[in-house]
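pipeline/complex-builder :: batch 7 item 3
reading input block
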Amino acid sequence: MTEELTPDGRRIGDVLMDLKNITLRFGGVTAIKDISFNIREGEIRAIIGPNGAGKSSMLNVISGFYVPQEGEIRFRGERRGPMRPYEVARLGIARTFQNIALFDGMSVLDNIMTGRLNMMKAPIWSQALWWGRAEREEVENREQVEKIIDFLEIQNIRKTPVGRLPYGLKKRVELARALAAEPKILLLDEPMAGMNVEEKEDMCRFILDVNDEFGTTIALIEHDMGVVMDLSDRVVVMDYGRKIGDGTPDEVRNNPEVISAYLGVAHE
Amino acid sequence: MEFLYASEILLNGLMAGVMYSLVALGFVLIYKASGVFNYAQGVLALFAAMTLVGIMEGRVPFAHLLGAVFGIHVSSFGWTVPGAVAILLTALVMVGVAIAIEKLVLKHLVGQEPIILFMATIGLAWFLEGLGDVMWGADVKVLDVGLPQGISETVETLTNDWLGYGFFIDRLDIWAAMIAAVLVAALVGFSQYTKQGRAMRAVADDHQAALSVGISLQFIWIMVWSIAGFVALVAGIMWGTKSGVQFSLSLIALKALPVLMLGGFTSIPGAIVGGLIIGMGEKLFEYFIGPMVGGATENWFAYVLALIFLVFRPQGLFGERIIERV
């Protein structure tokens, strides 16, 4: 077991997910070109890059929404064959979406409960009659969900239909639903996109707290360089589908290729 | 006496309403699970009823086709199957139909607009209608699974003793009402309290989100279409017993439309209450107002009522509020 401590004393463990030589093409367009990196247990791993760099595609590869043409994905040491998104979710990889995908017609509570659907094993008649094993399960799951609701400070909107919530709160509910699944890896697709400063700060705090409190491994995509550097333990930098940098925020910040991708270089 | 006669009409209207509700239920199920108005629901009922008759009478499926292509001329296996067994077999056939619909149609339309899925169900309706004819022949069939029919003497004597006026109520209608009640209780329990029911509502709302919490769209769709097929079978049995199994059976779907507008497309209890209101309203309107406007109001009353409802409560009585953030 290789274990390191981050500067602020958190633990980073073994490699949880290993991506090797991933290539993803859409017809003639290569969205991801031969990228390898890994995600280690307990860390906050960021994927950054300019618009169109292939960050979201990368996240979609990890969560099974896209299947890469080449490359290998190992999860907890085992090679993962081509899988459907729901199968990946059942492995313990939860995600949020850049454009928020919630069940608008359901209440906040019901939305978060869907995150635990796969933990309910009681036979169907037991569930329908609300009797025996199903009742115990429902109570247990409900307790877990209430913990998450408290944690993310959304108690006052528990019964509100999600469709009525403002943007920032929707993002938080989506995070809650992903957390409810008790994921091994939590994937966040631009968790701070479109938020105002106050909402961003809240979201930052929640992401750090989740990592700290539950020890959840988090991989996130973000646009805002400043936010990423504060949040993450290690950063992958992408540009035009290639990997141009990988390391701690400090290493990445001083990488000339990264600087040129973000700021452009003067050509003599 | 006038009052008692009106009550009898009311009761008969309620019973007729139950029959409408049975059809409407199938629509609601599919709509809840996929946000799609399933145009094929009426044909599904017809197909189920045809298959049931075919199995009961021991008909050879595709008999005409076999004759035309291979020159084999057999139209009957020479046995008859008891009603209960045949219903079970037909239910299995409907599950098969559900699987085929998922594999051949829905799977290829993941993430498409509801209007595209709606168009697909129109195609499906005509395909199933043709398939039913090719499989079992286009003749008008008599369906008798052993449900009691005719005027209930018990009700007549009882009401005669109590009120001095005998109510005429069809026994088939009484059975339909009881079966509908059981069916609705089961469906409500299923969609509100079970994991599969929750998953179903989730899929209806957002495909991507449903996938991300580990729900298999494929499984949910097969499940929902199987249940819709089963509900169609029940409706097909009731209507088929009442008025014979023929093409016009698929038109009962048209009767379900105003019921859905009234009750809301997303509510199972709504389908029931909507059906009852329409059945009752139709009969009472015909009785009280009909003579003043020359009768035959039953053809249009339901639609006018539904239109009025649309103006004041577009989501129906029990439908989910339509929330639009601007």
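note: The mean pLDDT of chain A is 88.
queue -> next item
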